[in-house]
């Protein structure tokens, strides 16, 4: 690549305060990555309240036609039902076919509350399950009845399963836990479970995954055991909603959602996204933790081939955390978002 | 009542080892409750493997026609898809219209791992959501496609909401958190949220719930905050699957699933059930924690009007826990199931 175009979608709340930090970290890499252009793009709940659309077509078109990758901030949720509103991040994942949400969660020594020994990756299927948003409402004998469809396909389960085995193979422990609730959802979660477990028997795999050990767990007991003995997990693969819940649960173990990055990845595009939300309660105060967004930028860069740059950013973040002096309030510190960003960029 | 008939459904694994403890605790109440008869009833995965049915009609009929209440043990889940099998506990909840699953979770001082300050009740809707088990599978262009229906009705949401407000009002803090994911499921979870929130405006309520403060949370951040600041919760009300996950998560905070009781309650029947599963890994060793089952028996007795008996059982359990000498291995102890049962019954 001669140059790099990164779509920037800060969206709502602290999304707008942490994305500049990610940008600063990327810029701090200087000439070790191609000349980078940042393209500001519109999306979000606030944008919806102004225009009636949460994700303008133009944003999707620019992402598809002009950008090499993207960073998303966070989106606010309406506090009451709002007709016509639909989450732009859910829509983006589907429209860009970003079928995998990869969420690594790792303890840092800094936080006294964080449990030691957490080093796992949640691989969340990103396009289906209840997130297909096929909902209807009717009126029956006893009042309103609402129904949602939960879709699980062999195709989506297989590609997320393949990715999960691939990631497990790359990690030292090579362990994979398949999350489901097939004791209740024998057909949908049964399909997910069987399809993921069958990945090693696919044509062409040829024993490639022989070193991966596979376990499985019901989602309720997975959350229980995640809290009690997080060290048992390495790679976890889960349908969309379980992955959503599990990654938040895992984030709690390492001390703050403000530390946990992710990428939404497809075969031809990747979008970094901190796992935290728009946090309206602290928005506008310059105290949001920018590290999840900065780490998401690193993951995104690695995904498109700039592993060295990603490593430099991650090492800088780790050293700031290890030192434990310049931290935002969620980690018990007193520093501002901008001070943490400065400290990280200085070390890149 | 002249006499009390309690249906006993141990089902699988440690369910069979903990239910005798519950029976012993009830018997230890002596003449302070009516003469009690225990009726052993069949159900479970093992029963299914022998007979092809997991919940015989006879069991349901005896429960309906002869029993005043019941105790359920735990049910095993098949490790592979088994045609024709369907969870008997899910079926029982529906067939007996036990629409509320009430799961109190409270810290005890004994466990060093347990977070202090947990004192909450998860009120889980028990009859619908994805547990309606309406699943289909078709074959599309790209392979198998499975669909499940998630049903949320106004009626079920209202009755669980009414119960939640009632329980919140009875507790010192009078705080209620409504759990949903209406940022994605705006119609189904939207209906749940709006219906529960509207309970105080129902005809006849007349300001009864004015003292209850209501908050709400998305299920993913509810799990996150449950782990980080469990003290913010008092009563939580949730659709079926979220309630399943949340109650296991809360159990992790107090040190062991082996401590957490529940009742499945309807307008005319109640069935106690420890929150833990059948734990095949420790079954048959006489080391399962009987306290969740014993506490479930107490909750069941309170529900049908024997509050004094319930208090006596609960005080005995609490004193064994506080003393911390006779504990099963899940709590770091070395005692057998039967030793814990003896210790509790001695103190009743
Ligand atoms: C904002 C919301 C739609 C989203 C989700 O549920 O996927 C968020 O919780 C996340 O985890 O990225
Ligand atoms: C065994 C299973 C069907 C059940 C459930 O999901 O309800 C269990 O996890 C529970 O919480 O009682």
From TrEMBL, chains A, B:
Q: Which domain of life is it from?
A: Eukaryota
The protein's matches in Gene3D superfamilies, at most eight in alphabetical order, are given as: Isopropylmalate Dehydrogenase (3.40.718.10)
**GO cellular component labels:** mitochondrion
Q: Where is the Isopropylmalate dehydrogenase-like domain?
A: 5-344
Q: Which GO terms describe its biological process?
A: isocitrate metabolic process; lysine biosynthetic process; tricarboxylic acid cycle
Q: Which UniProt keywords apply?
A: Magnesium
Q: Which SUPFAM superfamilies match?
A: Isocitrate/Isopropylmalate dehydrogenase-like
Cite the GO molecular-function annotations of the record.
homoisocitrate dehydrogenase activity; isocitrate dehydrogenase (NAD+) activity; magnesium ion binding; NAD binding
Any single Pfam family the record assigns to this protein: Iso_dh
Q: Which family does it belong to?
A: Belongs to the isocitrate and isopropylmalate dehydrogenases family.
Q: What is this protein called?
A: Mitochondrial NAD-homo-isocitrate dehydrogenase LysB
In which organism is this protein found? Suillus plorans
């Amino acid at each position: 690549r001669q140059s790099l175009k990164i779509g920037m979608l800060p969206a709502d709340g602290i999304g707008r305060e942490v994305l500049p930090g990610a940008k600063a970290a990327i810029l701090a890499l200087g000439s070790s990555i191609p000349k980078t252009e940042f393209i500001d793009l519109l999306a979000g709940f606030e944008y919806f309240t102004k225009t009636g659309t949460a994700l303008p077509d133009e944003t999707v078109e620019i992402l598809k036609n002009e950008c090499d990758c993207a960073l998303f901030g966070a989106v606010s949720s309406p506090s009451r039902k709002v007709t016509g509103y639909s989450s732009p991040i859910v829509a983006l994942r589907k429209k860009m076919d970003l079928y995998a949400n990869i969420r690594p969660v790792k303890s840092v020594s800094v936080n006294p509350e964080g449990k030691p020994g957490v080093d796992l990756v949640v691989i969340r299927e990103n396009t289906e399950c209840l997130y297909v948003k096929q909902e209807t409402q009717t009126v029956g004998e006893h009042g309103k009845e609402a129904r949602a469809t939960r879709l699980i396909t062999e195709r989506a389960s297989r590609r997320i399963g393949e990715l999960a085995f691939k990631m497990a193979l790359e990690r030292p422990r090579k362990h994979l836990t398949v999350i489901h609730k097939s004791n209740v959802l024998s057909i949908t979660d049964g399909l997910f479970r069987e399809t993921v477990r069958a990945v090693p028997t696919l044509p062409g795999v040829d024993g490639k995954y022989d070193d991966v050990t596979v376990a499985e767990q019901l989602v309720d007991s997975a959350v229980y055991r995640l809290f009690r003995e997080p060290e048992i997990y390495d790679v976890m693969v889960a349908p969309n909603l379980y992955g959503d819940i599990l990654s938040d649960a895992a984030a709690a173990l390492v001390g703050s959602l403000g530390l946990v990055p992710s990428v939404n990845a497809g075969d031809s595009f990747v979008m970094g996204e901190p796992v935290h939300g728009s946090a309206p309660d602290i928005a506008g105060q310059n105290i949001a933790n920018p590290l999840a967004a900065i780490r998401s930028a690193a993951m995104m860069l690695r995904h498109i081939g700039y592993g060295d740059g990603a490593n430099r950013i991650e090492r800088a973040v780790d050293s700031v955390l290890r030192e434990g002096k310049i931290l935002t309030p969620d980690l018990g510190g007193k520093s501002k978002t901008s001070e943490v960003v400065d400290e990280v960029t200085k070390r890149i």
